[in-house]
What we know:
The protein has a 3-stranded antiparallel sheet. Helix content is about 30%, strand content about 20%. It is α+β, with helices and mostly antiparallel strands.
Amino acid sequence: MNTDIKEHKKLNIAHIDRKIINFEIVTHSDDSESLPQNPASNESPDIEIEAVHEHLDRPEMLMGSTYKIKTPMSAHALYITINDVLLNHGTPHEQRHPYEIFINSKNMDHFMWVVALTRVISAVFRKGGDVIFMVEELKAVFDPKGGYFKKGGKYMPSLVAEIGEAIESHLTNIGLLKPSKLDEHQQCLVDKKRAEFKERNQKDIEQTVSETGFPHASQLCNQCLVKAVILMDNCYTCLNCADSKCG
């Protein structure tokens, strides 16, 4: 038995202590061809992609955009400024990411909660990661006193919700959020319904509210919150988002 152990050592045979799940026969002539190749070895090393994190130093200069909000609830407008940090400048991965937000107005009635809101939102921006979730959270805030209709006929449940919509517009402008558009089928349905309504109701078309572009007697759509729902063929249909009670 000692002789067998010596022979194994001479042949350099390794002891197998795990279950064999696969095998491959390799000869000396085709070692280079049969061994698995690492595709990354033939390519340039991966570029380290810079991302926003809580320890990122604030640059001396940031790019920003300002959005104006004018509501019927106040005589003075709110100005929302969102500053972005530019990541991976000069590379294919170049991207603007929101870094901080400021809200300014002559109206000081909401000063305390506006300051608190901007500090929380800015902290979320600087934390990094996905910040899109915050848009839906803000847009879901409802004012107990009731909302209002903004220019264009869209219903806003609260001032906080409109701040969320401004952030949504900014994220869309810098490419972090894809713009929501109707698909081909929905757009075709909207165009068809508009053409039918225009043909049947020429007099009502003349009374259309110029700001909204929809008939004056339109109702509020629960899907897109725009006064664009009309009754045609005993079916309520939205001329803005194609939502229909009849499927």
